[in-house]
UniProtKB/TrEMBL annotation:
InterPro entries xrefs: AAA_16, Cyt_c-like_dom, P-loop_NTPase
SUPFAM superfamilies per UniProt: P-loop containing nucleoside triphosphate hydrolases (SSF52540)
Protein name per its UniProtKB record: ATP-binding protein
Keyword ATP-binding: yes
Organism, as annotated: Fodinicola feengrottensis
Upper lineage: Bacteria, Bacillati, Actinomycetota, Actinomycetes, Mycobacteriales
Region (Disordered): 1-24
Keywords associated with the record: ATP-binding, Heme, Iron, Metal-binding, Nucleotide-binding
Domain Cytochrome c: 171-322
Signal peptide: none
Keyword ATP-binding found: yes
Gene Ontology molecular function: ATP binding
């Protein structure tokens, strides 16, 4: 038997942190490789939207797809959407990064500067019209802003012109531009509409620019509410928990590289406690490694380590989200957990919630809407609601009553 060294612990629970083994995502990576190849050959292709609960690895996969685009020498940029924040500034920074990646290969520096001038004009429109000069934000672009291109103030017009020019710059060097948007459900209505319209126009023109978005399960409904054709505009890929084979591989492969192993019973226990969710696989895997006295890691090691992992998740994964809710919203969440204990997948009919609370459904709308905006719940289907965080209901039911 080999003693376990916590310094060599290979497991990596963390928000967006790539695990040591990206298990169960080969299909998505292969499909994106086809998208890149088709776009380079000027074949029609749709942009991509990844959806799923928190903790399933959407951000990790988004980063892996960006790496795939970089390997093909595309220009890439990434941003995270935030509620009540305009898309102009973060999008400008993302496309600036893409331009910098393409610039060394471009034989005509003036073409790069022309694009940067348009990008600067687009970015400067984020400043309020009445802002004083000293208060006006300036992007870090060292060329004069263009005039009459991407600077109308109409987001739909400006974004289309900006994307068109970005695609043309990439086409000059036989590549493309890939823009990655995390937490895409948090884009404003105006920005979502403009993004859909721009992607629609570019797909018709065959421009080499693709958008890859990631967001919560209700993201498709956010997009379709903005533009009805968004259902055909994007290719939607649901990112779910790992199946048993992939979950086992996520544990076995990193351990093997450190000359360690898991017993079959330990793998059974890990799958039972993690549910196959990648974040939980890493969290419980890390705790089990640290508590195991020697290799192989056993089911008893998993059992001993689980409470420590539970305590860490209670603070960092569940508790931090719960603390953001108001008292009324917390009552709504706790009731969801109670009612959802006996429903498959913990999707809860809103009528059952109202009955349990002895309230009219309309009186619960403010709490429901607030929790959706905070990304804690989503409308699973008409008339029902579900948690965006796996095992959130189980965690709430384990808490003492407030």
């Amino acid at each position: 038997m080999r003693e376990m060294d916590p310094i060599r612990n290979p497991y990596a629970p963390g928000a967006g942190q790539r695990p040591p083994e990206l298990a169960g995502r080969d299909r998505e990576l292969d499909q994106f490789g086809v998208v890149l190849e088709r776009v380079e050959r000027r074949r029609p292709e749709r942009s991509l939207v990844l959806t799923g609960l928190r903790g399933v690895g959407k951000t990790v996969l988004l980063n892996a797809l960006r790496s795939a685009a970089l390997d093909r020498r595309w220009g890439t940029g990434k941003l995270e959407a935030r509620p009540e924040v305009s898309l102009r500034r973060p999008l400008s920074a993302a496309l600036h990064a893409a331009a910098r990646e393409l610039a060394p290969r471009h034989r005509a520096p003036e073409r790069v500067e022309e694009f940067l001038a348009v990008l600067k004009a687009f970015a400067l429109r984020s400043n309020p019209a009445d802002a004083k000069i000293r208060d006006r934000w300036q992007p870090g672009i060292d060329v004069p802003a263009a005039v009459g291109r991407a600077d109308s103030g109409d987001m739909e017009i400006d974004l289309l012109e900006l994307f068109t020019d970005a695609g043309a710059l990439a086409a000059d060097v036989g590549a493309g531009v890939a823009l990655f948007i995390d937490e895409m459900q948090d884009l404003s209505t105006v920005d979502v509409s403009a993004l859909c319209a721009a992607c629609h126009e570019l797909s018709q023109n065959g421009a080499p620019l693709v958008v890859v978005g990631a967001g919560l399960p209700h993201l498709p409904s956010v997009l379709s509410a903005s533009k009805s054709y968004s259902e055909r505009l994007f290719r939607y890929v649901r990112i779910d928990r790992l199946d048993r084979t992939a979950a086992d591989h996520a544990l076995i492969a990193p351990a093997k590289r450190e000359d360690a192993s898991w017993t079959d019973e330990a793998l059974d226990a890990m799958h039972e406690i993690s549910g196959g969710y990648p974040y939980f696989v890493q969290a419980y895997g890390k705790a089990a490694w640290d508590h195991a006295p020697a290799s192989p890691i056993t089911a008893e090691d998993v059992s001993v380590a689980a409470p420590e992992a539970d305590a860490e998740l209670a603070v960092g994964f569940f508790g931090s989200r719960y603390e953001r809710a108001t008292p009324a919203e917390r009552e709504y969440l706790r009731t969801m957990a109670t009612v959802g204990e006996h429903t498959a997948g913990e999707a809860v009919p809103t009528a059952d919630l109202a009955t349990s609370l002895g309230r009219k459904p309309s009186s619960l709308s403010p709490a429901r809407d607030g929790l959706i905006k905070k990304g804690l719940i989503y409308s699973a289907e008409r008339g029902s609601i579900a948690f965006t965080v796996p095992h959130f209901g189980r965690w709430l039911r384990s808490r003492p009553s407030e």
